[in-house]
Amino acid sequence: MKIENNTYEIEIIRSIQELNTVKPIWNEIIKDNNNVCLTLEWISCWLKCFMDKNNSLKTIIIKKHNKPVAIAPFVIKKIKFLFFNFKVIEFVSMADYPDSPTNICPELDFIISSDAYQLIDKIFEEVIKEEWQFIRLHPIPKESKTIPELKDFTNKHNYKFFEREAFKSLIINTGKSWEDYTRSLSKRFRKQLRYYQNKFREIGELQFILFKSPAEINENLHHVLDIEKRSWKWQKGVSINSISYKNFFKEFPEQASHFEWVHLWLLKLNDEYIAYDLNICYKDKVINWKGSYDDRYSNFGPGQLLLEKELEFYIKNKTSEFNMLWGQTLAKERWNPENKSFSEIFIFKRTSYSTLLRILLINLNLYKINRIFQNYKKRIFRKLHIRSKKSELTRADQLNISTNDLKW
Questions:
Q1: pLDDT > 70? residue 407
Q2: Backbone angles phi, psi at 103, to 5 degrees
Q3: Is the pLDDT of residue 73 over 90?
């Protein structure tokens, strides 16, 4: 659907089929953006895996003099919370909670030309036409120009605006030499890495293997699952074949196959694979997306040794940053990362229903309390061997699912 005025042309996309028709436009505006989660490949893959009857797509494209200048990849969600039913507008590929272990997306925002941030007003002129109780957007970089523009929009329309920290990501600056980077690590940590290497030499030969082609990744994904089965995640955490991922970790490498954005790293000890990392390398940025290791070797630091080899590779191949994602653990802090803050934004209407939801979710903090309650509930279900299709702790192999739905 196209809407025209004297200066701008606004196009509304409501299906995956329509998205495919605007690929040249999308690629034109995103060419200077280095966020893989805003590519058409990422968004169409997410829609393929996660769209259901409770979600409806509304992506807004704005052109000026027939040139694309802004895209808002939105989805409208129907949500049931306690005894309430309501509609929320979110970014495509957002998780329920930004720092959830099932959040596959480290960063989201609008796609806007550098001189066109005032067009957020135009975007929300279209948003206002929809039925919704509030807008929730995350994770937006704290320094994004989007945030002050959103504040201005809410003031103009007498809406209620809330901003809070979604998480801090730990990001390693890889725009330096390998020698300079290793010198920045503590002597104690460097000594520990050498200790791990020596311990493995006593057992056998270590091999660090990188697969980048789609065919290679597809052929070796079964090794990833085998490693997961021998990791702590299989019984206690969220494994890569969690029902919540909907096969995204297999589908996205295929969707972006012609670009080789996905890198599969494997650590092999003698004839057995004992650790893996699945990374996304998009333009000059790397995301340490998913990884695990065999619990039998936890005292030998297999994940740390694999990460060391990855960092050496990406630094020598001139990337600018390596995103270790959220979760400030000692294992990550040892690599001397910097903290980057991301925000979660809420915008509520002034209607009585939206105000009630705001009081419950924000003022009374039920948004956070519900998450804590749901986490306890899922873990109790796991102990009782109750396999809920709504729980990220449920694995695909634990349910009677067609291999056409989940191919792990």
A1: no
A2: -75, 115
A3: yes
